Every structure is written in structure tokens, then in C-alpha cells.
Amino acid sequence: DTEVTQTPKHLVMGMTNKKSLKCEQHMGHRAMYWYKQKAKKPPELMFVYSYEKLSINESVPSRFSPECPNSSLLNLHLHALQPEDSALYLCASSQLGGGADTQYFGPGTRLTVL
Amino acid sequence: AQRVTQPEKLLSVFKGAPVELKCNYSYSGSPELFWYVQYSRQRLQLLLRHISRESIKGFTADLNKGETSFHLKKPFAQEEDSAMYYCALLRTNAGKSTFGDGTTLTVKP
Known about the structure:
- The structure holds two protein chains of two kinds.
- By secondary structure, chain A is mainly beta.
- Helices cover 0% and strands 56% of the residues of chain A.
- In chain A, strands 2, 4, 5, 6, 9, 10 and 11 form a seven-stranded mixed sheet that branches.
- Chain B is mainly beta.
- Chain B is built from no helices and eleven strands.
- In chain B, a hairpin with a 6-residue loop joins strand 5 (32-38) and strand 6.
- The chains are: A mainly beta, B mainly beta.
- Chain A binds chain B through residues 31, 33, 40-45, 48, 50, 55-56, 90, 94, 98-108, and chain B through 32, 34, 36, 42-46, 49, 51, 86, 90-102.
């Protein structure tokens, strides 16, 4: 399996809801990433996990809570989001072999916050 | 701080014409640079990385440390090359990446 998969594809939620985004890869990659991408803008890094430990948090608000239960799975828990959080959320993974690794991206979850 | 600049938001060429998408970067360390492409309704995918010095789909990119550039070139553009192209800089071992704002390439028949 050489793909990064993300579920759901689309998500609509209210500002008081709690939801989760899921990302999975079976390429044996030991680094996983969450990005946020607004329309016609580049991806912005949110979080990086290396060997299932959070290694980078780009000053993301606490209403976004990442979780890496194992080396294949990455979740992003969402709570009390704002309408401006509506965006495409991309997951990526890379091998972590030393040096800067190629990141492989999932198709994204399109999130709309009402 | 690391920064990636793609000066052209939109680029339009005719089929068969040469194309060059510009990318400039600023980074105090030793950069690793990538080009990613996003075709309409498809996921972001790697096109090429400077360290491998390969040609993918006829595209090449050379890292010029003197000019801090990593321009993407293709001698003869094809209609299927129409897409959004992002230049990205990755810091070694840190996992921290910075993307340029992207260039939308349109290849006209």
C-alpha cells in the first residue's frame, strides 16, 4: 500500500461539536504531519509526529488536538472550532531516514465549520 | 527564518513552448528543496527533489545556491502539465517545511 488515506472526505460541523479527522498509512513511515490549506493558498504546517511523539506544534490553537495512537495512524481531534477554521486538512507521511524526507500527501478532508 | 517565494501566481504558455516556474528561497542552513504538483481534483504529489537530480515528466530543476533559486523547467510544455505547482523547502531532520504560494500553470492548445 503506497497511499496515505484520510477520512472523512468532507465534514460539516457546528461550533459546539466535537469531531475527529483520521489519517492512515501503511508504508512504514515514522513521521506524520497535519497541514491546513485554505483555498488558493499553500499548505501550512500544523503538527509533526516523529516515532509517534509530537515533535513540532506550529503554535496551533488548542481547539485542535493531534493524536498518534500508533505508527500507522494519526488523528486530529476538533472541538469548539470557529468558521475561519474551515479549510482542507491534509495529512502527510515520510520515512524519517535522515535528511529531509519526501512527504506523501493524503487527499485531504474538507472541513466546513458553521 | 526560512522563506520560499514563487513570484508568478499565474503562468500561461502554449503547447510546445518552453516553460520555467521560478522559485527563490532564503534559509541560513543547507536547504533541501522540492517541487510538488497538484492537478485538478487530485492530491498534492511530489514532482521532484533537488537531491535526486532526476527528470520527471520532462521537468528538471537545478539548485543554484549563489542565486538561492530552484527554478522548474520543461523545454516543451504539454496540456496535461496544467496544474498548480508548489516549491517547498524542508529543513534537514526537523520535519519543518515551508511552501511557496504556488504558481498555476496553464498550457493552452
